[in-house]
Amino acid sequence: MKKFEGIIFDIDGTLTATNELIYATFNHVTKKYLDRTYTPKEITDFFGPTEDVIIKELMSDKYEEAMKDYHDFYESNHKKMVHVYDGIVELVKKLHQNGIRLSIYTGKGRRSSETTLKQIGLYDYFDMVVTGDDIKDHKPSPEGIEKFIEKFNLPPKKVLMIGDAPADIKAARATGIKIASVLWDAYAKDEVLKMESDYYFNTVDELRLFLLN
Q: What is the 8-class DSSP label of residue 62?
């Protein structure tokens, strides 16, 4: 019997190592339009709203130009700056093959989310993709989880959220589903550990064994 009928994945820090690209892209536009750069900690402190919202708040007068530059840089540097965690692609494909409903719930905007999912070859394996552009309030709002549960009429107790951040834990708890926190690239690992998720996984292989056995 399947442990879960539906599984929701975050993208950054869960499926892919994208922080280097996100930091570089962000500083590419802030250097050009604000003549300043930010530390990784300062950039992660902005996380929550989509990149579009953050850029609009920082440089509203140059927003459209800045966002064009943001996406151009993100897309052109994706291949050389992003890598998928070993075993993730195979795991997602196997879950899909086993008939488990799969969704994405990410705080990223839709364009950058689709860029990443398509470039790593996983876009077509997800039954639903919910990005920060598709919800009223950003994570930890549970809206992205609720959309998935409602669309496929899934019992919450048979749904699992997999993510690396505190926001993923809060969103899962708000809907009563189980949360698996992955620690292979968590930018807020210490905080995540303090929040006592239902499950913790240090490697993709640990997650694979849990989900497929």
A: G
Cα dihedral 54, 58, 59, 64 in deg (nearest 10): 0
140 upstream amide cis, omega within 30 of 0:
yes
The residue extents of the domains of the chain are 6-16+84-212, 19-81
| pTM, entire model | 0.95
Quote the tokens at residue 25.
Answer: 């892209």
Coil/strand/helix, residue 128: strand
- 6-16+84-212 to CATH, choices 3.40.50.1000, 3.30.1330.10, 3.60.20.10, 3.40.50.720: 3.40.50.1000
Taking only the tens place, the pLDDT of each residue in 72-129 is 999 999 999 999 999 999 999 999 999 999 999 999 999 999 999 999 999 999 999 9
